[in-house]
Amino acid sequence: MFTGFMFATGIENSIPTIGNGKFRVDEMEKCGHYKHWRTDFDLVQEIGLRFLRYGPPLHKTWLGPGRYDWSFADETFNDLHRRNIVPIVDLCHFGVPDWIGNFQNTDFPALFATYARAFSERFPWVQMYTPVNEMSICALFSGLYGWWNEQGTTDRTFVTALKNVVKANILAMREILQVRPDALFVQSESSEYFHAECPEAIGPAEMKNASRFLSLDLNYGRRVDSQMYEYLMANGMTPEEYHFFLNNNLKHHCLMGNDYYQTNEHFVGEDGNTWPSGEVFGYAVITQQYYDRYRLPVMHTETNLAQGPAGDEAVRWLHKEWANVLSIRNSGVPVVGFTWYSLTDQVDWDSALRENNGNVNALGLFDLDRNIRPVGTAYRNLIRAWGKVLPTQSVCLQVPVSLPQDYVTPHAPAPVHENSEAATAAPKNTE
User: What residue stretch is flagged as signal peptide (predicted)?
Assistant: First the structure.
């Protein structure tokens, strides 16, 4: 059993389609993970991490209703089990298989729930999940901004995508709990704020600051604001669909994951248009707003910054984010984990994956040659320094996570691993 502070990283498994579905952006392919996955897991351990946001490529694994190719998942997850690394399993990251189509498909939630159950049955030792990653961003980029997948540009296509991804998340949680009743779900979601640029922009900013909560309100069964209710009803959600969300509250199995980058805060103009504001409030202030709304344990599930020309920009950002985590934790918010995302550099996120340019973004703990970056060294040092201190500060700020090798199949003996105490102990005298 692990009850310490959850330091983590992630391996990017985004798979949106662009160009009207003609090209799939597979970040695992672009970043070389299919070839170097063993080395990548070595690097996770080199940093000193026990937690990894990770999932199999959905489009390569889920071949059709009831049809799966588990070959890559078997190799990688069995190796994670051997290493006793705790995966926070990222089942759907910004895309679906071609046979599903896109997030406008109303069959997606129920179909995805069967996939989630099939995965949990195959890997019953897995306890932690993010069924659908960044539900709000997924729906915005696919259903409103016209960037990914269905490339929708209307409020109606956005609401359709939103209700489908959140329903998929809820149904997946329900199915996984049937297999693993102590499952824990981390809602990795972008934490946003919109600043009014002038007095005339106060109304549009208030509207956007209400809409930023929609995915989590629906997921956690919280009644949305009246303005948001009217918006949802006007754009295709039915009262019956809305009440489905109110009646499926699984908050008691959830950790609220807050993702924060410099791009998460925005200025809003009088006409409702937005543009980047950079860091104004910062992670601590905005996370406090989310915590006050949902009252759940918090994990900082994503952050990064490019290494930059001076070579220390990412390191300074790491220390700033960590200072925010300590500040809000000391103020009483139960922050239980922190994540630098991702393990290696990413590719084409400078265009939000809208273009297939092959641009390497220096955001990782390691570069794509698997050489450690300064921020990787700094994160390793941070974990060594703080990993021994935080668990002793408060037993109330601990999450009871089962390590992979702790799992015992019902009615079966515990597995003995080569590096376990049981494997090296002297045999008992049975005479």
Answer: none
